[in-house]
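Slide 14.
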Amino acid sequence: MNFFTENKDESNLLPDVIFLDINMPVMNGWQFLEQFKEVQPSFNKEIVIYSVSSSFDDRDINRSKEYTEVTDYIIKPVKRANLLNVLREFN
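Slide 15: predicted structure.
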């Protein structure tokens, strides 16, 4: 989060896409999304977020859909074809 707040005015440094693992140490994906929602309006570019998790739990999938910042929910392991489809959108 420090990177985003420090570079919010430098759109060339900000990523185009984030693959956000829901289960991360220190800050989980839900905590990240809550903080990201606060700083995102100050960005000069749109950043696409994909939630990534090994969870098939409908609660996680539905919770992810509650965030307008999240484009889609990808279940791990991520298949190469799925990743290529996502990356094609950015070419």
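Speaker note: The chain has four helices and three strands.
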